[in-house]
Amino acid sequence: MEPPVKILTSASPLRLALALAALTLAALACSDDANTGLVSVTCPDGFVDQGGRCQQATPITLEPSTLGVAALGVPYVQTLTAAGGARPYAFSGGAGLPPGLTLSGGGQLGGTPTESGAFTFTVTATDSLGSSGAQTYTLRVLDPGDPNNPNNSTNSANNSANNSTNNTNNSTNNANNNPICVPADEVCGDGVDNDCDGEADEGCPVCAPTEEVCDGADNDCDGQVDE
């Protein structure tokens, strides 16, 4: 420890200035730790103690600056990072987080929200030298029916994909059930729309069934001759 400094009113201006300088150093609370032999310094705001000397702290910033929305009852994960200062960083705070979410010391924000609404909280990152930086966030937790709920978009996309698949299958089934007609000359008496005009045996004479006679004609109108 430095010896006590006595200030005499009759001292010369030079001695008085030296005495005031000694008092200023004492105000910085320099002390020799009897157990470790290290010098500790109480530094003003914006400075950190590095080996018994006050050095200006490096600003620390947190990323991202804003958070995406969360959905009620859906797992949520967001990793916060820090820049500036000296690694590693320790993350703390989070008072006011949505119920169901927690903040780890490594900066991972996660959990499953159990309550909807807008929640504001502050996260602080502290580096290995004691410098710190803070970021205030507002996290919105949306109800399942909210049109801004990202899960609704996912469901809509899935429904659209399913509908598209179903429409494709229906088209395939219709094609299988209704094969393409290749026009040909109409054949009388076979009951088929040979010329693909939507009618069968059109233009053919009306057959009046009689007993089949071996005369080269379809007497009984069954589409066969002399059977």
Describe this structure in words.
The chain has two helices and 13 strands. With about 230 residues, the protein is α+β, with helices and mostly antiparallel strands. Strands 6-13-12-9 form a four-stranded mixed beta sheet, with no helix packed on it. Strands 7-11-10 form a three-stranded antiparallel beta sheet, with no helix packed on it. It has a two-stranded antiparallel sheet with strand order 1-2. Strand 1 and strand 2 (about 40) form a beta hairpin. The N and C termini lie far apart (about 135 Å).
Furnish the topology, listing elements before pairings:
Elements: H1 13-27, E1 31-32, E2 39-40, E3 47-50, E4 53-56, E5 61-63, E6 70-71, E7 76-79, E8 81-83, E9 90-93, E10 101-103, E11 108-111, E12 117-126, E13 132-142, H2 150-177
Parallel strand pairs: 6-13
Antiparallel strand pairs: 1-2, 3-4, 5-8, 7-11, 9-12, 10-11, 12-13
Q: Strand-residue fraction? A: 15-25%
Helix content: 10-25%
Give the spatial strand order of the biggest sheet. 6-13-12-9
The largest sheet, given as strand count, sense and whether it forms a barrel, is: 4 strands, mixed
Order of helices and strands: HEEEEEEEEEEEEEH
- Work out the number of β strands: 13
Shape: rod-shaped
Structural class call reads alpha+beta
What gyration radius follows from the Cα positions, in whole Å? 45 Å
What is the mean predicted local confidence, pLDDT?
78
Provide a count of the helices.
Answer: 2
Contiguous low-pLDDT stretches (5 residues minimum) are 26-34
Distance between the termini: 133 Å
